[in-house]
Amino acid sequence: MAAQKDGAPLWERLERPAPTPRQTLSPQRIATTAVAVADAEGLDAITMRRLATELGVAPMAAYRYVSGKDELLELMVDHVYAELELPPATAGWRETLRAIAVRTRELMLHHLWLGQLPPSAMLALTPNRTAVSECSLRAMTGEGLDPDTAMAMATTVSSFIHGMTGSEIAMRQVMAGQGWSDEQQVYTSLAPQLTYLLGTGRYPSFSRYIHEGRCKNDPGWQFETGLEYVLDGIAARISAS
Amino acid sequence: MAAQKDGAPLWERLERPAPTPRQTLSPQRIATTAVAVADAEGLDAITMRRLATELGVAPMAAYRYVSGKDELLELMVDHVYAELELPPATAGWRETLRAIAVRTRELMLHHLWLGQLPPSAMLALTPNRTAVSECSLRAMTGEGLDPDTAMAMATTVSSFIHGMTGSEIAMRQVMAGQGWSDEQQVYTSLAPQLTYLLGTGRYPSFSRYIHEGRCKNDPGWQFETGLEYVLDGIAARISAS
DNA sequence: ACTCCAATGTGTACAACGTATCGATGCGAA
DNA sequence: TTCGCATCGATACGTTGTACACATTGGAGT
């Protein structure tokens, strides 16, 4: 618990003036370099030691600013979510949710490690992340919905985003881990698994999709198609009330 | 690569007869004990060493059956997905998808570690897991949809399931990590973060939900409500075609 | 201008992890 | 019985997160 001189949460500590102007280290610098490393080499490259060397500093130095690796990840999450540009308050609920969905997916694809976060960092209540929830929640309550329904709708879209993009990221991750660059190459290099399973003849529909599907290589199409399904379902409930 | 005497995938190796009847160890026994440990103490408790002591065996013994920790996780995943009872082929697409959704959620809540899997295990193509995909895919193709659309619809529901249940699990995980048992206690013990953020006044809609929402403590309601939204959206597309 | 003290970064250390390597052992075929 | 191989044991290495104690610094109060 080296980081907190009192019990205040990370974000409150962050907003009061820097304790001392001397520092070669700061939460900002820690966050940006950690994000740079994670973007370039994946989440596994994020090591307290690696971070320290990257900062030109002793292994334990960063512990003055984050209480441990979990808080480091929270810091990174909040840092990248600042990139996400929120739609204006004048936009309709559907445009708002769609924009947030598309941009969240882009954000996650720019920072693949967002798909591998441990539970604590996954639902960490960071300011910039909460701002996104606030934005979609406001869009729904503007339709005159009660808070519970509004939240359920926003959460539904959010769950779809993270589920869909999460598996898209997992796919890329596995690809990158093997050095496969082409997505078609995955289906042929994953072949030992795939051809065996399909060869059992127990998965006819799945097999048919593999052989006849045309959009296998386009996660973007799957994402936007599915997103419209979800938004349609929500729209039906709104117009019905 | 101690596990494969040839390059065959895990599941193919599994189905040919046991190499030798002597063994005190077997993939089955490894899977069941590993799942038992993970269920009781979380995924972090799954250690090759811990697994070995639990099996009453030397630390490296299990490497004879799985090539590493990743394959161990795949084995565990496939093992628990065998529990999932699939709806009959006679059921309609909506009943099929709903049943799979509800039961997948139950499965994940019975095995919380399913929400924390690394990317490789997350999208691992295991037999029992593929059987689930096959089932929902068959339900959709039965509606006369082309393979791509059928897959997009099945994937949409699947993404919703994993996104929603994933964050529900993350919540429980954080609770369990702190020893909080009551869910109401989370909202008051998460207070340092929450009250600070809400105190800034920058999140009015979010704040209103926290204070006025009534279903905050019922993830089951959120799940089933959101699921109906998603299914409604899909139904609209099916009847429109 | 000098002192002091809290804030800051350093150095060392430990337990636990995944797993490579090699040696011991015991079963089944000959 | 003997051979050979599948199986399991023992030991070891490099890496991880982080606890702990120490050195250093720079500004506030005298």
Fold and architecture overview:
- The structure is a homodimer of 241-residue chains.
- By secondary structure, chain A is mainly alpha-helical.
- Chain A folds into 2 domains: 10-80, Orthogonal Bundle (Arc Repressor Mutant, subunit A), CATH 1.10.10; 87-240, Tetracycline Repressor, domain 2, CATH 1.10.357.
- Chain A has helices at 10-15, 27-41, 48-55, 69-81, 93-110, 119-122, 127-141, 147-178, 183-189, 191-199, 204-212, 219-240.
- Chain A is flat.
- The termini of chain A are far apart.
- At the A-B interface, helix 6, helix 7, helix 8, helix 10 and helix 11 of A face helix 6, helix 7, helix 8, helix 10 and helix 11 of B.
- Chain A binds a DNA duplex (30 and 30 nucleotides) through residues 2, 5, 19-25, 47-49, 57-61, 63-64, 68-69.
List its traits:
homodimer; 241 residues; mainly alpha; Arc Repressor Mutant, subunit A; Tetracycline Repressor, domain 2; 66% helix; 0% strand; DNA-binding
